[in-house]
Amino acid sequence: MVGEEAAERILREVRQTLAASGFRFDTDKGAEWAKILGGSDEGIYSWITVNYLLDRTPENTVGTLEMGGGSAQVAFVPPAPPPSTTGTCKAPSQPVSFKGRPLPLYTTSHLEYGLKKSKAVALAAFEATHNLTNNPCFHAGALDVGVPFETRSVQVVGAGDFDGCVAALHTRLQAAVSPCDCELCTYGRAVQPVAGPPEYVAFAFYAERTTDIGMASPLTLADIRAKGTEVCAMGIDEVRKAYPEGAVKNGVATDLCYDMAYIYTHLSVGHGLHNAPDTRISVVHKINDVELGWCLGAMFAELSNLS
Fold first, then answer.
1. 69 appears as a binding residue in the annotation
2. Would the annotation count 70 as a binding residue?
3. What predicted TM-score, i.e. pTM, was given to this entire model?
4. CA dist 255 to 3, 65, 126, 229, 251, Å?
5. What is the set of active-site residues?
6. Domains in the chain and their CATH numbers?
7. Is residue 155 annotated as involved in ligand binding?
8. Model confidence over 132-167: pLDDT tens digits?
9. Distance (Å) of CA 156 to CA 138, 141, 159, 255
10. What residues sit in the active site (predicted)?
């Protein structure tokens, strides 16, 4: 998010610090030993972490969904594609070793489709189209909304309409998916598997905007829509009273209408769950008291490479 030049400058300092730390660090391979983790790698490692902690077998894995601030990841082992799914309409996958067995894992990272970045893009679009008044994505009333990753805010007069916000977001996200020459595409018109897993484990902002505000897990798209409709109907004072300071992690109560509408639309359009609305989504922060993320999976992947 800081740009390539700034990122490389930071990495050079990190490599110099590691080289002088006394720990083993190969300066000749510094660019490999200290680098920015790619989005696909993050998705793979998180998937390994979740399925290992759940003690799943290679035949019975779950998919993973992670929503960050700047990007969003998905990973799962798709069912065997139909024989007709070949060529340009065959979704990409890569072999991943899990419990000694290679599995064809579909994984992708949607850069700039994280919760915070999506809001910055949406606010810019609302400004450009003069749609900051009677805006469906924000709670009813006048509100200064901070623009993520910037130092400014914009004044919005909200209308608090979940379905209206979904419609506005759907138009933008669908434009990034269509036209699709295959049965199912994601952002950038990239092919994704037509059928996903029957169950996902979702974490990060997915948890902070669902179970952390009182929703029960597992949940479905319909559950998110119902809660989003309820929350968006609250005015500014009402939502602040319902979710006082500290209740909404990494955000504030007046973020909730937009955030829930975006999560719903992203799952529907970006991941194609409109085709499988009953898909079970287990939302958690930890499994067996272990915080979810990519670190544990990365360790297993590196050990697998060593062996």
1. yes
2. yes
3. 0.89
4. 27, 21, 16, 14, 6
5. 42
6. 1-36 (no CATH), 37-306 (3.30.420.150)
7. no
8. 999 999 999 999 999 999 999 999 999 999 999 999
9. 8, 8, 10, 12
10. 42
